[in-house]
Amino acid sequence: MREKTRRHQQLEILHERYILPAYEKDELQKLEAGFIGELEFDGIIEPFIKGSNIIHIKDYSFYPEDAPELSTKSREDASHVQLDNLVVAKDFLYTFEIKNYSFDLIYKDSKWYFENGNEFASPLLQVARQRDTLGKMLYGFGSEIRMFNVVVFINKRQTIFNLPAAGEIIVRSNLHKKLAKAMAGNHYDHSRLISRLEERKVDVVKHQRDTTVGFRELAKGVFCGGCGRKVTRKNRDWFRCRGCEVDIPILDAAARLIRELKVLNRSWKVTPSLIQAFSDGEISEFYVRSNVKRGRLGL
Question: Per the database record, which ranges form the NERD domain (predicted)?
Fold first, then answer.
C-alpha cells in the first residue's frame, strides 16, 4: 500500500486548521498531484504483477553509500535517495520515477523548457542520480542484475514537444505498451537481493520533522477527512458532514484527532484533555479516557 509522506499529511491537516502561506499551498498541490500520479501508475502496473513473481516495492528510500562521509549531519538527517517504484521483472531491476505534471514541456538541444521559453529542470537528472547511487549499492551487494531507470510522465493531458526517443522516458500514451513488454515473470530467485534492499531501506516518514506551527495557532474542531469541512454534532454518537452528506462515528473522529496530533508534532503529549481542546469541546475528556481504557482508542 502506498502512503503519503508525513510532510504531505501535515500540510493537509494545516490546510484545514491554519492559514498556509502561498508557497506551502503550492507545495501541497504538488504533493497531491504526485501522489495521485503514483496511485494511477499502481493501477496500471498491478494487472501485470498480480499472480506473478514480479516484485514491486513502492516508495523505496535509502542512504547513498557515501552519505556518512560526505555529510556532517546525522545519518537520519543525511540526504536520502527516494524511488517511487522499484520493480524486479524479467530478471531485470527497473525504477519508475512518476511525474504528474499538468503543464506542457518542450525538449530542445538536450534541455527542457516551459512553453513560455523558461528553462525547466531536467527530470532526467534525478533519474541519473538514482541510477548512480542505486548502482553503487547493488555493486556493494555483489549483484549483477541489469538495471533500467525510467521517468514516466503519467498525465495523459500533458504534451511534450520534440520528445527524444530515449528508453529512459515513457509518456502516458505508450505506458501500457512498454509495461507489456517489460513486465514478465522472473526465471531466477531474487529473494537475497530483495532482503539486502530491505536491510538498507529507511523510514523517511519517521525522520521527517515536526511542524513549527504551535498548538494554540491551530483552528480547533472536528473536520471531515473527505472534504476537509468542519463537521457538526448530530447526536451523542455521530457527527454529520454537510458537505459530503455523510455521518461520522464519534469514535472515528476521536481516532483521527489523535492521528493528526501525532503527525503534526511528536513532542506534544497526547492526552484526553488535549484531544478535548483540539476538538473544541466536541469530544469530551471523559469519552476519550473511557475508550482508551476499553482499548478502542490508543494514545
Answer: 35-154
